[in-house]
From TrEMBL:
InterPro entries: Clx_II_MBL, HAGH_C, Hydroxyacylglutathione_Hdrlase, Metallo-B-lactamas, RibonucZ/Hydroxyglut_hydro. SUPFAM superfamilies: Metallo-hydrolase/oxidoreductase (SSF56281). The lineage of its organism: Eukaryota, Metazoa, Chordata, Craniata, Vertebrata. One of its GO terms (cellular component) is mitochondrion. The keyword Hydrolase applies. Its cofactor is Zn(2+). The keyword Zinc applies. One of its GO terms (biological process) is methylglyoxal catabolic process to D-lactate via S-lactoyl-glutathione. Gene3D superfamilies: Ribonuclease Z/Hydroxyacylglutathione hydrolase-like. This is PNKD metallo-beta-lactamase domain containing. Keywords: Hydrolase, Metal-binding, Zinc. Belongs to the metallo-beta-lactamase superfamily. Glyoxalase II family. Residues 93-255 form the Metallo-beta-lactamase domain.
Length: 349
């Protein structure tokens, strides 16, 4: 029972400091130990394989509804001609996103953690829910799938079969496209945080908008997800896929972690004006409880240490040098591993 008590305590620093590791039931995923990689923490396997994860999720939802009756942040919708993106703040730091084709009123939701909050947004907007895009199995991203499916019979649930996503109706392969009204989403396989993690890219071109990346727990403002089920090499390849989308791409992450991630990054890079400026801005935003998303992938490359593994200044701070004959990507994976290791140990004050 000792394990359960530790488990169900939201006071755990690991828990609070990092993306909430919500598991799936029944657990199909596995938690490989990576040779030379970062080990998953011992509790992760319990979360991913037992009912405790689901119970924790239910408790987390209840507590967050009490603590943040209006959500943890002020939602700031983003409009382009023909499309509206509405971030929905859920739990204590998650975001779901309602993406609306404003012409037809058809809509998709990304990672509906709290079905009540998502349903309230659907009703307020007066839209029809056609699709749920689930980035990964953790309950803080997938916990609302069942309830929303019950309420919206024709709504499909998209995601990877590798990730045991609750209520999955339409498994997706890497680079598969899905249309919702006039909206076109592309699914990209981005393993590392979980084996079946996927991100979704809304094609902005028909609306004169940049691409919109819904990144789940792959990438945050100034941060990246924990490596629960993948090696640094795997995560690096997935981050490179995201960066390949182009600098103008808008980043809509799965969590509001900007302040914590920027503060950590500023401890690594002491002389980075872009980072300093973003930290100042984020501090101001969070004082007013405003959301910090979206940023752009171009911006992220100027201050996000997980996207700067190629930068000599970061490598020097970490005391890492490329071995003779070492492949550049193998070296970048070592840099990523070290940044991630330090972030795992970092305790925000
Ligand atoms: Zn997660």
């Amino acid at each position: 029972m000792k394990v359960c008590r530790i488990f169900l305590s939201s006071q755990s620093t690991d828990w609070k400091a990092e993306p909430s590791p919500m598991p799936s039931l029944p657990a199909v995923g596995h938690t490989p130990q990576h040779q030379g990689g970062l080990r998953s923490p011992p509790w992760y396997s319990l979360y991913a394989r037992t009912r405790l994860g689901y119970l924790f999720y239910q408790r987390q939802v209840k507590k967050a509804r009490e603590r943040y009756p209006l959500g943890h942040s002020v939602p700031q919708p983003c409009h382009f001609p023909g499309v509206k993106i509405l971030p929905i703040p859920v739990l204590s730091n998650n975001y779901s996103y309602l993406v609306i084709d404003t012409g037809s009123g058809q809509a998709a939701v990304v990672d509906p953690s709290d079905p009540l909050a998502v349903q309230a947004a659907i009703e307020e907007e007066g839209v029809m829910l056609e699709a749920i895009f689930c980035t990964h199995k953790h309950w803080d991203h997938s916990g609302g799938n069942a309830a929303l499916r019950q309420q919206h019979g024709s709504c499909k649930v998209y995601g990877s079969t590798l990730d045991a996503i609750p209520e999955l109706t339409n498994p997706l392969e890497d680079k598969e496209k899905v249309k919702v009204g006039c909206l076109t989403f592309e699914a990209l396989a981005t393993p590392g945080h979980t084996v079946g993690h996927m991100v979704y890219v809304l094609d902005g071109e028909p609306f004169g908008a940049p691409p919109c990346l819904f990144s789940g727990d792959l990438l945050f403002l100034a941060g990246c997800g924990r490596l629960f089920e993948g090696s640094p090499e795997t995560m690096l390849a997935s981050l490179d896929v995201a960066v390949g989308l182009g600098e103008d791409t808008l980043l809509w992450p799965g969590h509001e972690y900007a302040l914590e991630c920027l503060t950590f990054a500023s401890l690594l890079e002491l002389d980075n004006p872009a980072l300093e400026q973003k930290l100042q801005w984020a501090t101001q935003q969070r004082q007013e409880k405003r959301s910090t998303c979206p940023s752009t992938l171009g911006e992220e490359q100027t201050y996000n240490p997980f996207l700067r593994t190629h930068r000599p200044e970061l490598q020097a701070v970490l005391g890492l040098r490329r071995d003779g004959g070492e492949h550049p990507d193998a070296f970048r994976a070592r840099v990523l591993k070290e940044v991630r290791r330090r972030k795992d140990l970092y305790k925000p004050t």
